[in-house]
Design a protein that fits this description.
heterodimer; A: 189 residues; 16 strands; 53% strand; elongated; B: 289 residues; two-stranded antiparallel sheet; 8 helices
Amino acid sequence: MASYSTNEFRSGLKVMLDGDPCAILENEFVKPGKGQAFNRVRLRNLKTGRVWERTFRSGESLEGADVVDKDMQYLYTDGEHWHFMEPDTFEQHQADAAVVGEAAPWLSEQDTCVVTLYNGAPLAVAPPNHVELTIVETDPGLKGDTAQGGTKPATLSTGAVVKVPLFLNEGEVVRVDTRTGEYLGRARD
Amino acid sequence: MEIDPPALGSTGVTDVHIESMRLAGMPGAYLQTSPEYYLKRLLARGFEAVYSLGKAFRQGEQGRYHHPEFTLLEWYRPGWDEYRLMAEVQELIVATGAREQRPKLAVSTHSFSEVFADATGIDPHAPPPQTLQKLASDIAGRDCNHEDDSICLDLIFSLRVEPVLPRGLCFLHDYPVCQAALAATAENADGQVVARRFEVFWDGLELANGYFELTDVEELGRRFQADNQRRLTRGQATVPVDEKLLAAINEGLPPCAGVALGVDRLLMKFTGSEAIQQVLAFTDPFDLA
């Protein structure tokens, strides 16, 4: 991989730091008039999700990380691994629970996800921002209670539990924002 | 007297932390990082107080408070010391805009060691071995144990001290001798050798840097050589020493104080801007950098 100097640090650039792949979030140039210039950099460790703040001398460089985001189709899970396929090459990748993480309850078969590959192996999985899933379990709907704004828990086909309005019933399809876990509305079809 | 010194000179500055821009079409020419050497050559020829309001250029300095081409107001007062000049800087800032913008602008004056020790507990003139390196490592989030004291002072000052400087105008004087640049040195009240250098901050933003100027030509020559030595060890290109400046100072630079004030940053403070680009009408040559 190429290496990148502090003046090439941009938000989104993937670099290696302490042996882990990181994404640069922010890069601030700091320099006393007559002194050494520094770059104060915030990076997200892509393995742990933790945010690091590091200060480098301007002109220092970091090795680029072989990290690419790819759209892939989610195929299925065998309980231990989740399987994804690149739509253009049909190449398949398997990811374990540590990689899939919080994306797991939002994955439904055939959906297109963003899989982050590090040195060719899955590092993280991002589900679509919005998914449509069927309610498989919830208390019976209360007719005429549309105005109250009350909610109840509903279990969706993928196992995710979200709060939905009281009037919804099992079998209905809802739209959910996977970033917040919030119910957005009934799916229109 | 107002002077309009050249923007292009036959050499740059040796200072390891300031890189001059070069012209591809004119090898040997350097865009000036400040008008200092030209103004000092005039002072050595007997000019009285001189000033220049013009553009300065510094390679690679780009950020929220930096622009590679910026405006400097620089002036020299023969016969003055740095304290008298600090008072004039204050007068100028208040008269040019602070009176309207910030009628109750607080003004404070401290020694560098006072604010540094307040923020860190360390005496910057006599730090116990490795204390600066240890604190710098904590602040930087990485190992700084191999860095020299001056680099650690810069890092600690920029990230730990500057943010807690007194609000309003803050004048700092008596800098660590390793950061003397072109200032004369002297002993402070505690018998420590310090640089007769001062800086001006407004709400923690550095606006100006000044010296009671070094007039000893041999010491100046030694500092230039030491700069180039450091450049070599840091892997930077050396810069030809400005022989015309040395010759002029050899003829005799009168005792004087000088200061350079960043006009764009002053405008930022007058207008309440968050970034230097907000006070520049055009930034296009650097937008791609």
